[in-house]
Design brief:
Number of helices: 31
Radius of gyration: 30 Å
Number of strands: 21
Strand order of the largest sheet: 1-2-3-5-4
Distance between the termini: 66 Å
């Protein structure tokens, strides 16, 4: 038989003998065109995308070429494990595992073809290569599916096990130097840590040695035994072994590949741990020990809230994704084994310990291996604290800093000297700088019984939490303590766009504090306010809390208003990328189709000037949502899908942008992804706790999720932060809808009427008003509210309303639409 093989990528020479055998297996006149590499696996394995024409299969397929070496010679080959996995969980496999087309073996070499049904593979990308939005969606689904679907038939281990039994099962020879384990030599030669010592210190803290724990160097009491859970285990689950399909749509699917380490009797949660740790190690262009230890501190089991100090770049988004990923096992444990919480909490901590040791064993960059070891130690410390096991508290210093002394480590393992160079690494132009704000010392401190410097320190701390403003305080501004200092000159000296200053004076046992915000370039006063406290009766800390919240809130909103106005005053040929975005924001808040078109043009021009500028993408996402609401723009475009795409792009370009996550929250909400919309809104708030829009997004998502009692507080905070913005009507409507769901009809009616008089709220205000009035059996008035909607929006129908409310639960949406039809809305 003559065979022909034309390839864009040549068949790997080391597997040359397999080519002829595979073509023969596929049948006469078969062809294989290799055109893309997914990865080059361990031990010389190659994972490739190939286009196949044959009697057995025609289309795109995954071609894996591998060989058995060492211990693998006596084990099943991967295609056999793959087939076994399909047999063990056929329902899950039908959705998430590629189908095996065929496999051929020559001595210890094997070639296997697997395929993803339909057009999935054609549009597939490795999970690690996707943008943040699809990564988050897929990770949360994967975390839940591994337990609820792939392991729907999980079993409890018949024996009570010591914790090291689980680690032995996961790691096997990797913790044994005599059998080929590389951890001992790495610790001794690279980290200057004796492998058998029970404890080490790093950054002023003690940590238990996870290798010493795994090797049973310290005896644990018998109370350490646990009842473990067993089931299907992938064994090597990381970002390149999860293929995400249709990643540009609202609901991406995924497939698991590379089942070389699959087993059907593994201890569960190890896959979760490997996936998490690999993501933590590969998700940043630059990894620094200081950032790493801060991330680990925020991932500790006993953390009290989140401490974002020290997190930079994409760390916030990374942390949020991992926390969301972990939430699913916690829910699963509580649902399926609530009477064994301590056992399964322990199993998850031990799985993360095992993952840390597994990656310490791998042939990765030295700094990453050391970070993986520190990750294992952090989880072991939590495990010991959970069970109150005693452990030595002193030991030698861990050598992570010495390994990283010459610079940070990139994802590719290259060393970088000096500061974070992520912009230069990505090859993108620098983003526009943050708006800078100088906070001057408050004058008049000697005239009162209250020390205003305490307030200034608090203000600097709170203002520093606003993600798009860079705050200048402390020693840099000390020279301007004199009350006669010129704020505008201080702003120019400090190269600050804005200056915040104030004074304090006492009158009749009352301290009066006046705060002012000025724009440096013009000297214009942007905002001012007065605060009073009674030095004899008021609690200073409580007053500082109130003042700092008020000032930070007004600074956030007023600088934004000032920047929009400044951009509108500039000549068009003088606009830079930031000005274009702020001018687009000005147009956005005019609520007209013409202004939205102008905003789109400005955003697109800003993106052309600065391709990695996140904010224009985020604004385009919000414009797409509103265009759908008001029926502006191209009726053929799926505006909800377009909004999700723009918002994902924004988060990918700048994972620590509050505005990007706020936009993604709204996009997901209207795309029907309510749970993730809530998570994105919460992330936005964590990045900027003074962002009015972020609280509005959270309140709206909670209300649509059927959690009205939880929706009211964030809306109230949004209204407190910015009670005068152009979105006031929509905030009032969200709160009114929540109150209506809570049965507070009269309050909902009052807010709805207020919304109809606030800016652009006539349509949405009358929508909630009609529902409230009909709930109160005031049908004629409800019908009049519907007429007001139709007066302002002729051609509005029940079908269009249903599309507008896509994110609502189907039953709720159907009820609302049906009610409006009864009140006179055309179908």
């Amino acid at each position: 038989m003559e065979v022909e093989n034309k390839t864009t990528i040549p068949w790997p020479q080391e597997y040359a003998e397999l080519e002829e055998r595979l073509l023969a297996e596929l049948g006469k006149d078969s062809h294989i065109y290799i055109h893309r590499a997914i990865s080059e696996g361990k031990s010389g394995a190659c994972v490739l995308v190939a286009d196949v024409t044959s009697d057995l299969f025609t289309g795109q397929a995954i071609l894996k070429l591998d060989r058995a070496v060492g211990a693998k010679v006596n084990e099943d080959m991967e295609y056999e494990r793959h087939q076994h996995a399909i047999e063990m969980a056929p329902e899950y496999a039908a959705q998430y595992l590629p189908k095996l087309v065929c496999a051929v073996q020559q001595d210890n070499e094997v070639a296997a073809l697997t395929t993803i049904a339909a057009r999935g593979l054609e549009y597939a990308a490795a999970w690690s290569a996707c943008s943040y939005g699809p990564q988050l969606e897929t990770a949360v689904r994967l975390s839940e599916d591994l337990l609820e679907q792939w392991n729907a038939k999980y079993s409890l281990d018949p024996e009570m096990r010591m914790p090291q039994d689980l680690i032995d099962s996961w790691l096997d020879y990797r913790i044994d130097a005599d059998r080929g384990g590389r951890i001992h030599a790495f610790l001794e030669t690279k980290c200057k840590l004796p492998p058998e010592t029970p404890t080490f210190t790093y950054d002023g803290n003690w940590y238990p040695n996870p290798l010493a724990f795994a090797k049973r160097n310290i005896t644990l009491p018998t109370t350490a035994r646990l009842r473990a859970v067993r089931g299907n285990q992938h064994g090597d689950l990381h970002g390149k072994n999860v293929l995400v399909t249709k990643q540009f749509e609202g609901n991406p699917n995924y497939f698991l590949i590379d089942l070389d380490f699959y087993r059907d009797d593994g201890f569960l949660l190890y896959d979760h741990a490997i996936f998490e740790l690999d993501y933590l190690l590969t998700s940043r262009d630059i990894i620094k020990p200081a950032n790493w230890t801060t991330l680990l501190r925020n991932l500790r089991r006993n953390r009290t809230g989140r401490n974002d100090a020290g997190l930079t770049g994409g760390d916030i988004g990374i942390l949020q994704l991992v926390l969301d990923f972990r939430e699913q096992p916690t829910k699963w444990i509580d649902k399926h084994e609530p009477n064994r919480l301590s056992f399964l909490d322990s199993q998850y901590l031990l799985a993360r310990l095992g993952a840390g040791l597994a990656i310490t064993h791998q042939r990765r960059e030295d700094v990453k291996r050391a970070m993986a070891f520190l990750y294992a130690a952090n989880n072991l410390k939590d495990y010991l604290a959970l069970h109150e096991f005693d452990w030595p508290k002193h030991g030698p210093e861990f050598g992570l800093d010495e390994l990283a002394r010459n610079g940070a480590v990139t994802a590719s393992g290259d060393r970088l000297a000096g500061a974070d160079n992520s912009d230069q690494l990505s090859g993108n132009l620098p983003r526009p700088p943050k708006r800078s704000l100088a906070v001057l010392p408050l004058s008049g401190a000697g005239d009162t019984g209250y020390d205003p410097e305490s307030l200034r320190d608090r203000l600097v701390t709170e203002l520093s939490r606003i993600d798009w403003i860079s705050t200048i305080g402390g020693p840099s501004t000390s020279a301007y303590r004199n009350k006669d200092s010129d704020p505008q000159k201080a702003g120019k000296d400090l190269n600050a766009h804005y200056v915040l200053f104030g004074s304090a004076r006492e009158r009749d046992k009352e301290s009066q504090i006046t705060m002012r915000l000025v724009q440096t370039a013009s000297g214009e006063e942007v905002w001012s306010d007065r605060y009073r406290l009674n030095t004899e009766t008021d609690k200073v800390i409580a007053v500082e809390d109130k003042i700092s919240f008020s000032v930070a809130s007004r600074v956030d909103t007023q600088i934004a208003v000032s920047e929009r106005a400044r951009a509108m005053r500039k000549a068009s040929d003088e606009l830079d990328g930031w000005d274009m975005f702020m001018r687009a924001r000005w147009h956005f808040f005019q609520y007209s189709e013409e202004d939205d078109a102008a905003a789109i043009a400005l955003c697109e021009e800003a993106i052309r000037k600065i391709p990695n500028f996140s904010y224009p993408h985020a604004l385009l996402a919000q414009i797409a949502l509103r265009s759908n609401f008001f029926e502006w723009g191209d009726s053929e475009t799926d505006l909800y899908a377009l909004s999700v795409k723009h918002a994902r792009d924004a988060v990918t370009l700048d994972p620590d942008s509050s505005f990007a996550h706020e936009s993604l929250s709204r996009a997901y909400l209207f795309a029907g992804r309510t749970a993730i919309a809530i998570q994105e809104a919460e992330t936005s708030i964590s990045l900027n706790p003074y962002c009015s829009g972020a609280y509005w997004s959270l309140g709206m998502a909670l209300a649509w999720a059927g959690r009205p009692a939880e929706a009211v507080p964030p809306i109230d905070i949004s209204l407190t932060i910015d009670p005068f913005d152009q979105g006031l009507a929509f905030k009032l409507v969200v709160k009114a809808s929540a109150l209506l769901l809570l049965g507070q009809v009269q309050k909902a009616e009052a807010l709805a009427r207020q919304a109809t008089d606030a800016g652009h709220g006539q349509i949405v205000g009358n929508m909630i008003l009609a529902l409230a009035l009909s709930r109160d059996d005031r049908i004629a008035e409800a019908q009049e509210a519907v007429k007001q909607i139709l007066l302002r929006r002729p051609g509005f129908t029940a079908s269009k309303m249903s599309t507008m409310l896509t994110g609502l639960k189907p039953l709720v949406r159907a009820y609302v639409v049906e009610r409006f039809v009864e009140l006179g809305l055309p179908e």
